[in-house]
């Protein structure tokens, strides 16, 4: 099951306290930066949950 990002809770990269840590943590390329926003590539997600556990805004959850 892929993850989803709540756009209202996400600070996007510019306002993220950890500058897009979810992107840096995802070794599968399932979370990418696109035009300053965080985007999910569901087919790359391997359900490791690192992004969910480390998002300071609690904006990432299971879809």
Account of the protein in words:
- The chain has a two-stranded antiparallel sheet. A two-stranded antiparallel sheet has the order 2-3.
- Helices cover 22% and strands 22% of the residues.
- A hairpin with a 2-residue loop joins strand 2 (31-34) and strand 3.
- It is of the alpha+beta class and 63 residues long.
- It has helices at residues 12-15, 21-25, 50-54, and strands at 3-5, 31-34, 37-40, 60-62.
- The chain starts with a strand and ends with a strand.
- The protein has a single domain (3-62), classed as 2-Layer Sandwich (Alpha-Beta Plaits).
- One of its GO terms (molecular function) is oxidoreductase activity.
Largest sheet: 2 strands, antiparallel
- The H-and-E topology, N to C, reads as EHHEEHE
Q: What is the CA-CA span between the terminal residues?
A: 7 Å
Structural class by sheet pairing and helices: alpha+beta
Low-confidence stretches: none
Question: Short summary of the structure?
Answer:
The protein is α+β, with helices and mostly antiparallel strands. It has three helices and four strands, in the order βααββαβ. Pfam families: Fer4.
């Amino acid at each position: 099951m892929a993850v989803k990002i709540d756009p209202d809770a996400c600070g996007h990269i510019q306002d993220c306290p950890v500058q897009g840590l979810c992107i840096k943590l995802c070794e599968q390329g399932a979370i990418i930066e696109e035009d300053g926003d965080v985007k999910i590539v569901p087919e790359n997600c391997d359900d490791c949950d690192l992004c969910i556990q480390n998002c300071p805004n609690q904006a990432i959850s299971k879809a």
